[in-house]
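hey
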């Protein structure tokens, strides 16, 4: 989820040599002056142009992952609190859609080349296997459930996103080829919401119901994000977010949270079949409004947390262990004050601080064996060389 963004390129160095002009007082038949030797070109000028990371997207990814972690941390403590439940629903409306839209935007160049497939395996498939095993072992130990089975078809907790990202990115060439991709993806999502019984197989419901956000990201261009940064859009975002927050507080006791997870069909939520497409389009519209409001207020300049945007995969995969500890170890039952306002604030701060720590460069380097393994031994030499050159360029962009 989590790609090197586009940015500015160094200007090309102009040609160093030019045709010398004749010296004053010389005729055209005079012996020509030997051409001046070309000026030396620095190694930096000889290097190919390097794209720099865009601070805006790194900021957006970090802030989105903080919202993901905070919302997950509210799950064990929000029972009985209308305000916390409303805040949870408000954030859940757009935090994953925002992340998925950005992921789709940076998947536009995916053409299933061998080097791209290698990076897809090392950056998505391998982390899925590693953390699926890690979360299963953690549940066996912390939840006192030693017989909990390993499963590659029923993703545990957070790992569904890796499976979804793998499927979405593989399908990118198709979405980039057809007409009206967003409309088609919305139809597919609606059909998924009317199809019970497919939720557990690779979390297919989430793959289908979140698909429109990825396709939207594929369809976006830089000028769309520039539009969100306009002053009038930013000012309009404030009443939109405030109105959505008030509306969420009003409906919080009566709306089932299953709609926001996008992991079940309408029938499995005890709703009529036509409610599935209705909620699919309704929540898609709400998510777009709140995502636009969120992105409108993301800082454009480099901030202290900008560097953390490159490590959001670590923050995403690691924070789940802390959140699940509250549930598996029964900490809320042991310490009831965690479900009180002061405890909810403490949980919020702790979740934000923990995911920030997990996104730092030292943690990213320590987890590279699981989140960004080299895997040269598993691919042909020509594929490894192509991927190595692309990886070197990507690493330079993060400096």
């Amino acid at each position: 989820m989590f790609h090197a963004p586009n940015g500015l390129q160094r200007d090309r160095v102009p040609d160093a040599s030019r045709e010398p002009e004749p010296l004053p007082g010389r005729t055209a038949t005079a012996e020509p002056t030997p051409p001046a030797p070309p000026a030396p070109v620095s190694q930096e000028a000889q290097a190919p142009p390097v794209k720099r990371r865009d601070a805006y997207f790194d900021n957006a990814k970090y802030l989105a992952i903080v919202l993901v972690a905070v919302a997950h941390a509210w799950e064990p403590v929000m029972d009985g609190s209308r305000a916390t439940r409303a805040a949870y629903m408000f954030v859940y409306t757009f935090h994953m859609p925002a992340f998925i839209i950005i992921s789709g935007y940076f998947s536009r160049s995916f053409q299933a080349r061998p080097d791209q497939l290698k990076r897809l395996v090392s950056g998505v498939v391998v982390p899925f296997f590693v953390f699926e095993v890690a979360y299963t072992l953690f549940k066996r130990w912390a939840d006192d459930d030693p017989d909990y089975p390993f499963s590659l078809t029923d993703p545990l907790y957070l790992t569904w996103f890796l499976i979804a990202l793998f499927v979405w990115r593989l399908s990118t060439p198709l979405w980039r080829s057809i007409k009206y991709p967003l409309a088609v993806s919305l139809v597919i999502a609606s059909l998924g919401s009317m199809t019970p019984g497919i939720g557990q197989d690779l979390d297919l419901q989430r793959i289908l119901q979140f698909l429109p956000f990825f396709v939207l990201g594929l369809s976006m261009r830089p000028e769309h994000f520039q539009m969100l940064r306009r002053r009038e859009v930013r000012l309009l975002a404030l009443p939109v977010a405030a109105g959505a927050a008030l509306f969420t507080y009003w409906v919080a006791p009566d709306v089932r949270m299953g709609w926001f997870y996008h992991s079940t069909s309408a029938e499995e939520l005890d709703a009529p079949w036509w409610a599935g497409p209705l909620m699919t389009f309704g929540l898609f519209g709400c998510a777009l409004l709140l995502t636009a409001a969120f992105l409108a207020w993301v800082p454009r300049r480099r901030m202290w947390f900008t560097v953390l945007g490159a490590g959001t995969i670590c923050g995403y995969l690691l924070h789940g262990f802390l959140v699940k500890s509250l549930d598996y170890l029964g900490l809320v039952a042991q310490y009831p004050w965690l479900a009180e306002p002061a405890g909810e604030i403490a949980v919020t701060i702790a979740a934000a601080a923990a995911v920030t720590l997990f996104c730092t460069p030292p943690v990213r380097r320590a987890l590279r064996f699981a989140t960004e393994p080299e895997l040269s031994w598993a691919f042909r030499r020509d594929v490894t060389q192509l991927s190595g050159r692309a990886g070197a360029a990507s690493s330079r962009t993060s400096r």
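The first helix runs from residue 43 to 46. Residues 1-33, 37-50, 394-399 have pLDDT under 50 and may be disordered.
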